[in-house]
Amino acid sequence: EEEEERRRGQQQQRREMWESLDYAKIDSKWSRLNFKQTKAGVLTLERWSNSTFIGIIVGSVAFAMMRLIDILYTWRVDTVLTNAAFSFVVRVVFFCFVSALFSFTSASLTLIEPTAAGAGVSYVVAELNGVSSPKAISLKSGIVKMIGTIFSVSSGLAVGPEGPLVHIGAIIGSAFARGASGRHQWRVMGDSDFRDIVSAGAAAGLASAFGSPIGGVLFSSEEASSFWSHDTTKRALLCSTLAVFVLAALNGSIGKPFGLLQLDFAEEEKHWELFELGPFLLLGILSGILGAMVTLAVSKLARYRLSSKFGRVSEATAVTFMICLTQILLSILLGRCVQYDDEDDDPTNTRKTFPRSIRVAMRCGVGNQEKSYNDLASLLLGSRDDNLKYLLSGRAKDATSILILSYSFLFQLFAIVFSAECALPAGLFLPTLTWGAMLGNIFSKVSEILFKTKLSGGAYALVGAAAALAGVFRGSISLVVIILEGTGQLNFLLPLLLCVFVANKFASFISPSFYESQLERRNIPYLHVEAPKGACVSETEETLTAGDICAAPAVTFQEIESVGNIEEILKTTTHNGFPIVKNVGYGEKRLIGLMLRSQLLTLLSRRAFIENIIFYEQEGDQDQESAMSSSPLRPGSSKSHLLDVSTSSELPSELRFRSLQQREAFENLEIAMRTFHQRKLFTERFALGVKYIESIGLSENEKKSHVILSDFMMLSPISVTEQKSVERVWEIFRQLGLRHLCVVDSKNIIKGMITREDLHKLQH
Question: What is the mean pLDDT of the segment spanning 122-135?
């Protein structure tokens, strides 16, 4: 009973927070007539224009965020910790306080919009799978995400801006898809067009984070999107390329090597030997296992996270303070001072010492050790981007010991576990790459000792970083392309592919991917590509069918329905789709169409009743009297008359849409329906419930009126017979991106409805 109560609570939570999308194209009597006038060239131009503007804006936003993060992070370490004119103890306390203040600011911002917390990639994955959370893709969430990410990454937590940039890119894309209203709304005719624009925005976000346009497109296709098309590829590539170009232009790097993974490999680091495939594979396996264990640890710890507003903010602040204090203590207790001279600042001579950009003196650099730095503090507190580049170049293994690399590696793992689910905007790409590169450098040093020969530390660092990402996020081709596109080292293709493959396989035995675990924790009804094996058979080992899992009986409407009956059903149910049926006698109802709740509410709020519609018999009648009003209209001339309820269903739709006035009225209705549905003007399911319906203010006389549903219903909705197996039902529902699937018998008599909720139950 407790388990059943918990499931009912989760189901209610999903209904209030999530809204299913419908990727099926709009196909009604009105759309067939209206879309004949739509010029394909206009739609194509607007869609490509969307992609262009999205790419430019995403690149500009990424530049602003990265520049501000660099400024704040450098100020926090160099000015506060290293160069402030106070005693060391005071500087440490002030350093931890500033770090905690940054984290406090970021976590407090998420109180404005809680969906801005975390990387946000799981929300994008859900959106592109067919589940929408209007709050998660709102502009408010995007603004909170941008500002919060700047402070969270600058605070010193083991987080990065890459995941949030994917979310921000998707939000910018959604803003263009649903950014206007009425006749000036962009011509996004359905959820499928919205899906393509969001996919392009997400690709641009990751591309700008790594300077990898092709990698961004592949990531969006492989990891984020459940549906992909050739047109989506072209628009996403344009979007990603423009984002990277704008970012490079603002950085003054046009025509120059650019990107987070743009490395300065020494010539001896660009090769590997065949015997190294063994160590590479071991490194891939270990990285995959560790990545899966990190995911598992984050999931376990998430159960004990504080859920109250005060608790979420205080927890993030406390975790940041403790991580920064631990960094300081470890650096003092375990770090060692390394001296350098002016010759070591030559970029080509960084074998013996760390480069200037990542050196942190801590308590070194005084007295006889004026020109010295703390090696562990440099790895833990130095510039993160420069640190990652240095680790990936393989030079760190010659500049420090295995112990120092091991200390920083272990600390990074524990810091990620505690930082990952803090209630602030943050991603895990950068810290995961960092610990993977550290592990690669350690492996390289160990392999050199075992094989007694000089090896390429850069090769091991790249393999470790890619395998770590595969272990946590389960990417494959996209991860390899991001690494290769960023570094330009195609000679590492084979070891990267092999190690990413084995990391994926071994990690899958331990835990699901990080995104899947987030979807599960957030109670998002995500549908996987295939139905679970055990979900297709009953307890008696019989094959389950559509009739076994559908919700029955279905709540239906007639072609012409009374306003009062529509209002009553909308008030007493939470359904979002209603089959339209035609009585064929003997109590049987034959399926002929499907209407959405948002469409019905639009018809009611606009008073689109039969009694209010004037039918104009002649084409070109210029009577300016409105064809829709809040009260029944009277004939204004001999050229028009009111539709009669008893005969209107027999009147061909072409005649009802024949006059300019009537076509304009129905076009206004269609625009209102699309705007209401596509722009997600509601934020929770209950916003379309009793309170909203009562606010429409239907009078008793209006409740006696009637509505023609057949003009706007989806004609011949996709349906399956009740004997169709669940495995095939899952395949149809998932591949077509449906929201409602009607279940009928052999005579097309409606028997029930299958929704995402019905299929999601089978996954558990």
Answer: 85
* Dihedral sign of CA atoms 502, 507, 509, 514 in order: negative
**Lowest-pLDDT range, 401-410, 603-612, 701-710?**
603-612
Please, which residues have CB within 8 angstroms of residue 226's CB and are 6 or more apart in sequence? 125, 128, 129, 130, 527, 529, 734, 737
Structural contact between residues 459 and 269, judged by C-beta atoms closer than 8 angstroms: yes
Number of Cβ within 10 Å of residue 463's Cβ equals 32
Give a three-class secondary structure readout of 150-211. HHHHHCCCCCECHHHHHHHHHHHHHHHHCCCCHHHCCCCCCHHHHHHHHHHHHHHHHHHHHC
Q: Which of 431, 528, 433, 428 is nearest to 479 (CA)?
A: 433
Q: Please, are residues 555 and 595 in contact by the beta-carbon 8 Å criterion? A: no
Distance CA 465, CA 440 (A): 7
Give the model's confidence band at 634: pLDDT under 50 very low, under 70 low, under 90 confident, else very high.
very low
Could you tell me which residue, 612 or 713, shows the higher pLDDT? 713
Nearest C-alpha neighbor of 81 from the set 354, 411, 332: 332
Q: What are phi and psi of 204, to 5 degrees?
A: -65, -35
Sign of the four-CA dihedral 474, 480, 485, 488:
positive
* pLDDT > 70? residue 624: no
This prediction's pTM: 0.86
Contact 24/738 with Cβ under 8 angstroms? yes
pLDDT in tens, 29-57: 777 766 545 556 767 787 888 889 999 99
For 453-459, what is the mean pLDDT? 85
User: Does residue 294 contact residue 417 with C-beta atoms inside 8 Å?
Assistant: yes
| Rounded Cα–Cα distance for residues 648 and 656 (Å) | 9
- 94 SS3 class: helix
* DSSP summary character for residue 368: G
What are the distances in angstroms from CA 119 to CA 115, 403, 429, 696?
10, 32, 10, 39
Euclidean distance between CA atoms 78 and 382, whole angstroms = 9
pLDDT at 106 over 90: yes
Q: What are phi and psi of 304, to 5 degrees?
A: -105, 5
Kindly provide the residue ranges of all beta strands, DSSP E only, lying in 570-667, ordered along the sequence.
577-583, 589-596, 614-616, 640-642
Which are the contacts of 63, defined by CB distance < 8 A and separation ≥ 6? 246, 247, 250, 251
Could you tell me the two tokens for 102?
């940054």
What letter would DSSP give residue 555? Answer: P
Q: Is the pLDDT of residue 500 over 90?
A: yes
Rounded to 5°, the CA angle 468-469-470 comes to 90
**Residue 253 in 3-state DSSP?**
coil
Tell me what pLDDT residue 633 has: 33
Mean pLDDT of the chain: 81
Contact 594, 712 (CB under 8 A): no
How far is residue 127's CA from residue 405's CA, in Å, rounded to a whole number?
A: 40
The per-residue pLDDT for range 142-160, each reduced to its tens digit, is 999 999 999 999 998 999 9
Of 94-98, 204-208, 496-500, 585-589, least confident by mean pLDDT is 585-589
| CA contacts within 13 A on the Cβ side of 187 | 13
pLDDT of 625 = 36
Instruction: Tell me what percent of the residues of the chain surpass a pLDDT of 70.
Output: 80
Q: Which of 269, 216, 225, 257 is nearest to 54 (CA)?
A: 216
Strands 706-708 and 640-642: unpaired
